[in-house]
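note to self: dont lose this again. the chain is below, predicted strucutre after it. 427 aa total, dont forget to put it in the shared folder this time
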Amino acid sequence: MLFEIALTRLIKFGTLAVTFPDGRVREFGTGEGPSAAVAIKSRRAKRRLLLNPALGLGEAYMDGDLVPARGDVFGLLDFLALNTIEGGGHPFDKLMEKVRWFRRRIDQLNGADRSRRNVAHHYDLDGSLYSLILDQDQQYSCAYFPDGSESLEEAQFKKKRHIASKLKLDRPGLDVLDIGSGWGGMALFLAREYGARVTGLTLSTEQLSVARRRAAEAGLEDQVKFELVDYRAWSKPVDRIVSVGMFEHVGINHYHTFFAKMRDTLRDHGVGLIHAIGRNDGPGSTNPWIAKYIFPGGYSPALSEVLRSIEKSGLWTTDVEVLRLHYAKTLAHWRERFAASRGIFARIHDERFCRMFEFYLAVSELAFRRMGHMNWQLQFSPNLTTLPLSRDYMFRAEQFPVQTKVNGRLSAGDVGVEEDNRVVAER
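---
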């Protein structure tokens, strides 16, 4: 009864048909469109959904206790997201959100050892998983769609070029520190395209192995190094710092430490650029299902939380850009590729893993389409006079003409040279 009362309060927009474990079917909402249908197959699922819906929904789907009765999980989650916006959310989840708020500093105590465990949880999975859903350069972060019609390969290339334009790589030989270097794509790109000397830092042994192999295959091992090192342990000065998709793992307790390290690491006329996920509705907490199964210790901050720490560090915030819907488009590409390779993932892992990953991709895309998430790029420098007075230098850097191979064909007008598309797909 309590569960049905909660659904009555939640569904204020459209109609949700629910099949209960005893076979009974009841509709909630207005009786009009849009509509969705779901089958709840166990009492356990009902308890989960009632007491902690933000965690229980994903767990019930993973365990096969909750299945869309019509359409797919993305459509069901989209319907529920719309009702969260229209109706204010599940009443019990509002209480749980307050609990998560008070716990968030404990949950994000990401010391060096815990950070390494958190990274291993998600990034040290079988490499074939990522090679099948990502672009050929293994960019596991928001792509950049300036036209909106780009392929995933083109958008990820344009993301790297866009970031490079903000680093002002105006001469070869600049020392660049790439914090959270992943499978090495950004570091290799900066070395090939701009003649930078790059050191990539990662906490993933799997990514470290792939990145080092890629540097060797590209003949760049003298120009690009990859190290299994926590950013807090780095002590050498550099000209540029770039960090893509790593700041979400720092933790709010460590923002002051992070930016103090950036200040101490950059040379006087250095430039740094962070590309990260954020939230538009102010400080919050991480979805408990994401925190438990996908990114333990992770958090996507509001810019207000980040800027406070930069101000205290003594660094200058020199440019901020908010990328709206770019990650939603990126995740849509990943969802499509995952669906096309789902049978392969089921053979490598199991059905529960597949349901976990497709739930992760669907709920993440909807976070950007419906729930106020976005990506931000923040440029900073220790010196007021390092960068030109206007942003024109960024635009000029992105217009430099070259011939770049994207999707196996030459694409005129892009900045760069031929991409090294040899990645972990053969592993």
